[in-house]
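Now read these lines:
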Amino acid sequence: MNGPSTQGAYFGLQAVPNRDVALLGTDDEVWTSLATPTVTVVSQPVTEIGQIAAQLIRDRTANPSAPPRHVVLHPHLIPRESTRTPPHP
């Protein structure tokens, strides 16, 4: 789920008492590290995505008959409190 969806789920879960739910979102927005509990996210390499997309457009414009290129970028997991196992009493 994207940043706004993660935030909506987070605040919705805050209203549910005695919940046993883990939350994982995307986009390492500032609020995710300031919330209590902090929210685990998968951070996407957005700058690199933009740079590669621009390069692919330039390449396609220069050579429209070239075969398509497939690029795989790797996200980064930032584990935080929202996915930690609670301590057992």
Notes: The CA atoms of residues 22 and 47 lie 28 Å apart.
